[in-house]
Amino acid sequence: AVWPTLVLYVVFSVVRRVGEYALSKPAREVLFTVVNREEKYKAKNFIDTAISRGGDASTAWLVTGLKTLGATTTHIAWALVPMMGLWAWLASVLAREEKRRSAST
After folding, report:
1. CA distances from 12 to 7, 9, 51, 71 (A)
2. Mean local confidence (pLDDT), 69-93
3. Measured on CA atoms in the order 59, 61, 64, 68, is the torsion positive or negative?
4. What does the CA dihedral 64, 24, 95, 62 come to, rounded to 10 degrees?
5. Is 33 strand, coil or helix?
6. DSSP structure class, residue 1
7. What pLDDT is stored for residue 60 in this prediction?
8. What is the total count of domains within the chain?
9. pTM > 0.70
10. pLDDT tens digit sequence for 5-62
């Protein structure tokens, strides 16, 4: 019973990492092409430490807390759908700002 679960976890972990390094990371790097070198390194340092690590930790705490309250994985996934909408909106705002900055340089 453990073997199929482990295989499924490994497959999804690999797919997630491929998506991260093939799509997310290059898209994030494009945002830094319109800022100066100092802003770029300050922002990247903040994103790598506060956002990524803090996001991982707070997500783990949130999921643990919600499961303690009786929420299932399905409930948690559906509750995060509005968050995906927020991320999509933020991506469009950042894309417009990047286009504006690249047009002005």
Report:
1. 9, 5, 23, 22
2. 92
3. negative
4. 0
5. helix
6. -
7. 92
8. 1
9. no
10. 899 999 999 999 999 899 888 888 888 888 889 999 998 889 888 888 888 899 899 9
AA identity, residue 87? W
Q: What would the two tokens of residue 12 be?
A: 């999804």
For residues 72 and 24, give the distance between their C-alpha atoms in angstroms, rounded to a whole number. Answer: 28
- The whole-number pLDDT of residue 93 equals 93
Calculate the dihedral angle through the C-alpha atoms of 37, 43, 47, 48, rounding to the nearest 10 degrees: 40
| CA 48 to each of CA 17, 52, 58: distance values in angstroms, whole numbers, following the listed order | 16, 5, 15
CA 80/CA 32 separation, integer angstroms: 28
DSSP state of 35: S
Domain ranges, residue 62: 2-104
| pLDDT exceeds 90 at position 1 | no
Cα four-point dihedral sign 24, 38, 90, 100: negative
Residue for token pair 């399905």: 74
